[in-house]
Amino acid sequence: MTIQEVYTLSNGYKIPTIGFGTWQTPDGEVAKEAVFQAIQAGYRHIDTASAYKNEKSVGEGIKASGISREELFITTKLGSKGHSYQAAKNAIDASLQQLQLDYVDLYLIHWPNPLAIRDRWQEGNALAWRAMEEAVAEGKIRSLGVSNFLSHHLDTLFESANIKPVINQLFLNPSDQQEQIVDYNKSHGILSEGYSPLGTGKIFEVKELQKIAEKYNKTVAQLAIRWSLQQGFIPLPKSIHEDRIRENLAVFDFVISEEDLVRINQLKGMFGVAPNPDLVNF
Ligand code: NDP
User: Fold this and answer.
1) For ligand 1, atom 34, which residue shows the shortest CA distance?
2) Residue nearest atom 35 of ligand 1, based on CA coordinates
């Protein structure tokens, strides 16, 4: 495996195996520079969201990179106010405008049941999905997906969807491997993207991981990203520092042994678990 490696989505499009995360990356020069540095370092897959309020700067970083659009895989997400037909249509156009792109490669429903529609999320998602399907037909989006969806959210979506989701983006790292929904995704041909692969920084406090990383002469970040790849996930590490942006890609020259995978998998719960979308305020 190399940084050029891709997975094939169930609709035939290709997705680079590591994406660059941009949550909590401040809008303006910081986001623009981080995205620019990421593309210079070799990332070809960028993950943003309307909720991150940095799509404009992410778009500027993409433009500044000079890399052709076809070589890049850009994801953005429908925010919590977008769960109706017209709101989703408007949100897609707004994201494209902010990003200064003609299309995005992947568009995700960010959250299955934001508080504002928690009593009618089924209808909200079906209507938003219809708008997303139309945007696919119009060439504004290539692939559709979801994030933070559990099996009952997907089962319900399948009742009305014509286009199948190709990705489910989830909190996935050694602290929570979400076996149930990951297995469900697999059985439906949906790839699992791993958000917070470094536990939003919490992973660096886990001593056991430091010991294992030292064995491979790698950092904890590299160990966690490599672990994610070996689980078949698509990790989305975020950093605003050029050295870390590069460090997080140097994960293709070692393989974690089966024995160490078992040790890592035993760390479940060490720094928190995935949010339950049915319970948290979003
Ligand atoms: P990560 O798990 O990627 O961790 C990022 C943190 O680790 C930052 O504090 C960063 O600091 C630090 N860090 C990164 N690399 C290194 C390194 N090599 N050494 C030491 N510290 C490092 O965080 P996120 O929670 O942001 O998740 C990644 C991405 O996943 C998001 O940016 C977003 O794109 C996506 N996401 C999606 C969600 C969803 O609901 N769909 C929810 C959460 C995230 P610094 O930047 O200062 O280097």
Assistant:
1) 21
2) 195
How far apart (Å, rounded) are the C-alpha atoms in residues 34 and 238?
9
Average model confidence (pLDDT) across the chain: 97
Per-residue model confidence (pLDDT) at position 87:
98
Binding-site residues, ligand 1, Cβ < 6 A: 21-24, 47, 110, 147-148, 169, 195-201, 204, 219, 221, 236-241, 244, 247-248
Residue 1 reports pLDDT greater than 80: no
Q: Which atom of ligand 1 is nearest to the CA of 240?
A: 46
At residue 144, the 3 state secondary structure works out as strand
Here the tokens at position 119 are: 């009593």
CB-CB contact of 208 with 276 (8 Å)? no
Could you give the domains of the chain? 6-265 (3.20.20.100)
Residue 6: strand pairing partners = 16
CA 22 to chain centre: 10
pTM over the 0.90 mark: yes
Lowest mean pLDDT among 2-6, 85-89, 173-177, 278-282: 2-6
Residues taking part in catalysis: 52
